[in-house]
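task queued by scheduler; priority normal; single chain, no ligands, no partner chains; default sampling; output format set to structure tokens
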Amino acid sequence: MRIKQFLVLPNLPERIKHLQDLAHNLWYSWNPELVRLFRELDEELWESTNQNPVEMLSRLPQEVLKEAAENGEFLERLDQIYEKLQQYKNRHSWFHYKYGQHDNDVVAYFSLEYGLDTGLPVYSGGLGVLSGDTLKAASDLGIPMVAVGLLYRYGYFRQVLSSEGWQQERYEENDWYHMPVQRVKDKNEKPLQIMVELDRQSVHLQVWQVMVGRVPLYLLDANIPDNPPKIKDITSVLYGGDKEMRIRQETVLGIGGVRALKALNIDPAIYHMNEGHSWFLTLERMRDLISNHNLKFKEALPYIWSTSVFTTHTPVAAGNERFDPILVQRYLGEMVSSMGINWEDFLKLGRVFPDDKSEPFTMTAAALKTSAFSNGVSQLHGEIARKMWHVIWPELPFEEVPIKSITNGIHLGSWISSELNDLYASYFGSRYNDRPGAPEVWKKVQGIPDAELWRVHCRKREHLVNFARKRFVGQLTRRGASQLEIQRAEKILDPRILTIGFARRFSSYKRGNLIFADPERLNKLINNDRRPVQLIIAGKAHPLDNPGKEIIKQIIGYAGEERFRDRIIFLEDYDINVAGVLVQGCDAWLNNPRRPQEASGTSGMKAAINGGLHLSILDGWWAEGYKGQNGFKIGNGEEIENVELQDKYDAEMLYNTLEREVIPLFYALNEIGLPADWLARMKNSIQTAGEFFSSQFMLMNYTDQFYVSAMSAFQRMSAENFEPTRRIAQWLEKMSRNWEKISINSVNFPVSDSELLVGQKLPITIEVYLGDISPNEVRIELVTGWLDAQEQLTNFKPFVFTQQPTASASPNGTYSFSGEVTLTESGRFGISARVIPRNDDLPHTIRPKLISWW
């Protein structure tokens, strides 16, 4: 049967045509004025369409649209908002004013998921929401970014709980023609398609676009008629299927993503990989450089390395994506062979130990080896990542492993409640969001009257309670609960009492059930007559994570007990909408992972910017965010190897903190009935989150530390048809060939006494044999620090030494370098020396195996 397709669009009156443009830009998701405008058209329809303006416009009766087109006040606000978007898109922002010379150097951002808004369900949780907030922040800051991902036919699952509390998954097909995505057309006005070879089979991919303010997001879709069913399934479900499905998805994302950008005539200066899922983009970049620019494999590598940024989110070794080399060869072997790359040389890129042929291909290891710029997502996670991957750079102390720390952040406009945003604007200035992280802006929160801040917060708590009741009634109704149970559910929770939120992915290490470790003690806490407490909990477990599902089931069991059922509630189907209501309305936000397994965590930041007080283990961002008077800590960062002992200890610390700090502080009212000390912490919480934990502040750090340096490398190395790249490759080959000949012959001190005085200056000479390597190709460093009990240097500091003039004429490759060290503190002091390559055309020269110690 042949079917002729038509795309039927809403018939908007000419005067309100701008609504269609506004609905197709995710800018609406962080513009409260525009959301209010859509809500006015039909509040109930707005909610029933998952706050999706595209679908809502398609379902509005024509008479409603006609009425809006004749409403003068509505039209005036519509025109103002549309003009505001045009100004936003055309204005110069932070990036232009600071780095205008790089305005045309595009950052290509790749992620397997994007959490942008409830109405576009192509995300599962924290990683996706971070990706979405990153694009919004890039738009705000004017960073020239494009993004690439996959368009999942079913997205992530919808969560439904059985009457016993067991999580069940339901997959709903996404209707892209009623969502804020649009097919990209080619020059012939036909849908743009690209092709990728997978296991000797052609995969045709359609390209869709989502506009996120000024940033375009391109999503690849395999669900098109040209593909057989097995191929269509590649973009069916997020995080579904086995290892074979994962390598298919990640190949499509990486290789297909680079080809899509090329088809769109976008030539990025740098590529930012958000987790290792997209590393196969590196292979397509190699193919392009080899095929179209006549570079060899070893010439392409330094260019790719210099222009790649990699962010790792996984603090547990087992959590990193690994593939069997046989599977990798099945899908990528032919492509690698066609480029003239030796298969073993390629596999070495993905091995921690390159010569271990039994080792799987690890995406994180490959990304770290081929990216000059790598980072963890909090200060603590950066430390963990440096220790985890130290084996790639065994010659370095782990503190110097080239993995930096750039802490995650949240997009302020997306997560601050509209009521609180209005309050902030009235005290900070209406454009306070244009200056992310500015201390002088966020210090003004201290000047907001307590009564005003408390009034807004109490309204949000009331809204949360009403939202939770309504949603819980819906859950019970779907399960076939009795009318008596439903009537009781309509009155659960109390909008006046201390409300604690806990919502995240249910994985064992996050310990969603820790607060239930002592049910009797919890009962006394939450049912205290004078100082009651209530808990609102939400979150999903991965479909294959049965231990996570057991935790949810256990919580549902407790919540159903008579003593808890009015004070503890579990909300089904956690998503961005539920998250927003929770973080804006809770008084305290609970987070209790097993340290140090929480890489960053951002839900607590979202609560903090809304005045919620973070109550957390000192893990992830809270290890650096906690300042003593801006929230609460559980324990002091203790790490116990025995998991059962750790859980028991942390549960005790949690109960103690609730009993001794959180609950008394909330209920300590002053003479006018306000919790003054609690409000003081709320203001400190807001100030901390605003100054240091916004996605704008995060992206400014990425730009300052990574992007601009990578953009400069792109400009240098791609000049003259990549001739500088070829020279660098030759230099690296020379260094690798001759490096083992280097030796530090001596480190000469002017004193023989082992006891020295603070303030004493030591002139030191280092004699080095370099062989065929020139002195200006290396950096000679003296390394000083304190000695620990194992005679290892700690808190060390390198000093660069200069070549002595007479050494330049050395006939045998031996040279002398000199410098001076001042002893600034007392204690056991140690000195060593090392040689590192030097090349000013590279972002840095910390390369595995290219470092020599005394």
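post-processing summary
- The chain has four domains: 14-90, 104-374+703-717, 434-693, 738-853.
- The radius of gyration is 29 Å.
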